Structure formats: C-alpha cells, structure tokens
C-alpha cells in the first residue's frame, strides 16, 4: 500500500461514487495531526446498526437497510477495483446516512452515505490489488479452507 498525502484530500470531492459523498476538508485548519472537515448532517451508521430506530423515529425499512449495504459495497468495490483510492479507516463510526432535506429517509431512493475522516487514504500496489481480487473471488465462490 502507498499512503496518499493529506493534500490528496482536496480531491475527495472528485471521487464521489453514486450516492456517496465526502465532507470537504478545511485545509486552512487541518494539520498533519488534525483533520477538520465540514459537518455531515445525518445518522452514524454505527448508531443505525445498534438500534432499529432512533429516538422518536419509526423503524428503518428492510429495503432501506439493504440499500445502505448496496451503496456501501458498491463504493468499496469502486474504490478498490476501479479508482485505487481507498479510505483506510472506513468503519460504521465513519459513515453517516445523510438527512434528505432534514427529513428521515422514507425510501431507499433517498439514501446517501457520507464517508467521514478520510485523513488516511491509500492506493494499492498491483500485488495487493490482485490479492484483493483473489480474496473476493474466493468469497463469492465459497472457496476456502474446510475443517
């Protein structure tokens, strides 16, 4: 893996797979130790995974949950296999389901994800990329060691 310098964060706006966004980095406030980004108004995926609904809200539909998974998986595959631009700290605490017009998403068509904290991004070497390809092929084929 190669690290991409923090100046590469300015380019995250150009990297926006369908229905995924990144907050804008505030470079005048960002240092080598601190990343400052614009605010992403929504629900942390971590909180959505821990609760079927948030206080005062109706439960999220199964279709919306599946759409969140589809959007996230598509973005990860695009990062690895097409763009070779990889968010190296992507976990449920760094993913926000954005509020659509300050309202809860009532249908899967309204879901947009925001990937926070892209302070550590990498690109894969050719060998690392082949290893990921082999891994995903093995998972899809259910081809792994058997006990």
Please tell me about this protein's structure.
- This protein is of the alpha+beta class and 147 residues long.
- The protein is 29% helix and 13% strand.
- It is built from three helices and seven strands; from the N terminus they run βββααββββα.
- It has helices spanning 45-50, 62-83, 126-140, and strands at 2-3, 20-21, 42-44, 86-87, 95-98, 113-115, 121-123.
- The strands form two sheets. The chain has a four-stranded mixed sheet with strand order 2-6-5-3.
Give the helices and strands, then pairings.
Blueprint: E1 2-3, E2 20-21, E3 42-44, H1 45-50, H2 62-83, E4 86-87, E5 95-98, E6 113-115, E7 121-123, H3 126-140
Parallel strand pairs: 2-6
Antiparallel strand pairs: 1-7, 3-5, 4-7, 5-6
Kindly, what is the distance between the CA atoms of the first and last residues, rounded to a whole number of angstroms?
32 Å
Largest sheet: 4 strands, mixed
Which residue ranges are poorly predicted, with pLDDT under 50 across at least 5 consecutive positions?
1-14, 102-108
Q: What is the beta-strand fraction? A: 5-15%
Summarize the structure.
This protein is of the alpha+beta class and 147 residues long. The chain is built from three helices and seven strands.
């Amino acid at each position: 893996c190669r690290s991409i310098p923090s100046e590469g964060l300015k380019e995250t706006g150009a990297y926006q797979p369908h229905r995924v966004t990144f907050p804008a980095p505030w470079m005048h406030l960002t240092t080598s130790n601190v990343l400052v980004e614009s605010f992403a108004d929504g629900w942390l995926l971590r909180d959505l995974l821990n609760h079927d609904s948030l206080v005062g809200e109706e439960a999220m539909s199964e279709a919306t949950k599946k759409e969140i998974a589809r959007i996230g998986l598509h973005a990860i595959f695009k990062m690895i296999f097409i763009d070779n631009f990889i968010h190296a700290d992507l976990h449920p605490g760094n993913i926000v389901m954005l509020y659509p017009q300050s309202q809860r998403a009532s249908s899967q068509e309204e879901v947009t994800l925001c990937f926070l904290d892209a302070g550590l991004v990498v690109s894969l070497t050719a060998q690392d990329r082949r290893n990921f390809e082999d891994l995903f092929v093995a998972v899809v084929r259910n081809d792994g060691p058997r006990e």
